Amino acid sequence: MTADAQGNDLSAVPVPVTGLAAIAPVDAANVLTKAELAARPIVMPGAFSKLGLIKVDGGFEAARDSGDAILFFQKGYQLSGEGTRTVKIGLAENNPTVLKLIEGAEPDVNGVIEVSSSLPNNQWILFTSTKYRNKTEERQIGVAYVSAVEPDKAERGSVKGAVVTLTYVEHELFNEAPFWQVVLPAPGATITPTGVTAGTPGSFSPVGATPPSTIAELRALGALGQTTAWTTGQYVVYATSSHAHWDGTDWQTGNAA
């Protein structure tokens, strides 16, 4: 992506072209690691079920609400109020997964559901993905529950779906965060490393980051999150097959001694 003389970059504008949403039971086995969330291609646990087609105007509508801030006697000081993260999805299908989500029940052997007046209390691991025209992709995963369902009016020649609002929960499976999010660059784009993990070998992050081509480029990136010298034998690969390690102060060539 390259900005013009005014600093504007049309290729950086996210124009949605497609996406998907899927749910799975709240279980540690259905949690993607951060590396798995950022992987291409992504591999989802088998317990996930897609919610199907989404209405053309029903793409993911995220909202962030904050409670009243706590003010102090001294001007200029405050504590932010408790926040809530939600997402609206205009679901187009009436498939079993959608019914399970919005009704909290599955059809019996006769295909009949005993509906309730109340919204289901079930929590789900919710995964969403939006792909944009510039080939970037945004993914989110977290624990959520249905907080509102607005069925569409039945209108001849139009899709009769439902706008479903899901509220995220700050859950221990996601380190008490409402959800994890990653925005993947276009395939083949150069990704500058923002961190590194020591190992034999170590690895740059985020996933897919382009290793520096010289030790000088590596040093120009700074400590990349390192605070202590690496232990004997640890290294990270840069350029084609060169090794480097963090000595506690700077990057040095070769493995840690």
Keywords summarizing the entry:
eight-stranded antiparallel β-sheet, mainly beta
Spell out the blueprint of helices and strands.
Layout lengths: L15 E10 L8 H4 L11 E2 L10 E6 L3 E2 L6 E2 L3 E9 L4 H8 L19 E10 L4 E15 L10 E8 L9 E6 L10 E3 L5 E3 L9 H6 L15 E3 L3 E5 L4 E3 L4
Antiparallel strand pairs: 1-2, 1-7, 3-6, 4-5, 6-9, 7-8, 8-9, 8-10, 11-12, 13-14, 14-15
Report on the structure:
- The protein has helices at residues 34-37, 96-103, 215-220; strands at residues 16-25, 49-50, 61-66, 70-71, 78-79, 83-91, 123-132, 137-151, 162-169, 179-184, 195-197, 203-205, 236-238, 242-246, 251-253.
- It is 7% helix and 34% strand.
- The two termini are 40 Å apart.
- The strands form four sheets. Strands 1, 2, 3, 6, 7, 8, 9 and 10 form an eight-stranded antiparallel β-sheet that branches.
- By secondary structure, the chain is mainly beta.
Average the pLDDT over all residues and give the rounded result. Answer: 93
Strand content: 25-35%
Shape: elongated
Poorly predicted ranges (pLDDT <50, ≥5 residues)?
none
